[in-house]
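REQUEST FORM: STRUCTURE PREDICTION
Request ID: SP-0412
Submitted by: Lab K.M.
Chain count: 1
Length (residues): 286
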Amino acid sequence: MISVLIPTYNWDVYQLVSSLHKQLLLANVVFEIIVVDDASSSLFSGNSRLNELSKTSFEIFRENKGRSAIRNYLAEKANYSWLLFLDCDAIVDDLFMEKYINAIKIGSLNVVTGGMVYNLYNQNLRYKFGKKREEIDEKERNRFPEKYFFSANFMIRKEVFSLVKFDGTLKGYGYEDLCFAKELNKNTYNIKHIENPILHAEIDDNNVFLAKTKQALLNLKNLIVDGKLEFSDTRISIMYRRFYLLVAGLKYFNVFFEKLAVRRSSLFFFDLFRITYLCKMFKDEN
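STATUS: Completed
RESULT:
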C-alpha cells in the first residue's frame, strides 16, 4: 500500500522511523520504510539499528547525490503504490500516518501534502522565516498549491512519480520543490493540501541558513536562465524585476545587508540581502 521514503544526512533518524513504524503496524496496512543516508560525514548508532525493524531498510551512499537525486532513487526502490516522502528531522504526532491513510482511501487524489509547523521557539532567522512564510493553514495552502508545496512532507502515487520526477541536475539546496510542483501542474496532477504537519526538529543557525540561501539563489538564477522557472514564480524574483532600478543601486550594500540579517535575525534585511544577491548573480551572468 505505502512506501515511506526518508533521505537522511548527518541525522539520527531512529526515533522518527520507530514512531512511523509503530503507527503503521497499528493501522494494519501493507507498508515498507526505506531510509537512505546521503554520504553523511558522521555516523549515528541509532541509524544502524533501523534494519532490525520489520519491513524497514537502511542504506548508506558512499558519495553524496543531492536532495533531488536521492529522492528519485528512493522512489525507484519503493515497492508500493503510494510514496510518502519525509525529511529526516521531522517530528510527527500520533495520528500522522492515520491522516495520510485516510487520504489514500478518498481514491481521487494523486498528490497530498501535510504542511509544516515551527513550534520549537527561538530567535533564529530560519525559525522566523519558517513561521511567517511556510507555516500556513490548509485553506490558504490550497489557494496556492504550488507555492506552498514542500518535499519535506508529501505523499504521491508511484505511477505519477514515475512520470514527474525531481530534477536530478540540481545538486545543491533550493527550489527543487517548486520545479517539481510546476511539473505536476504541467501534467495536470493537482496537489491537495491537508492539515497533517510535521514539526522540524532542526533549526539552522543564521550563518548556516545564509549559506544555504546563497546556494538556493544560485539555483534560482540558473533555473530562470535555463527556462525551467520564470521570474514570476517566486516572491524574491518578482521583487527583483519589479524594483530592478532600486535594487541595482542597492546591490553594493549586499554584504552590509547580510551582516545585519545575521546579527539581528531580521527578515527585512534578509530579504534585502536576497534580492541584492540575486541582482549581483544576474549581473555576473551578463
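NOTES: Residues 206-225 form the longest helix (20 residues).
Reviewed by: T.R.
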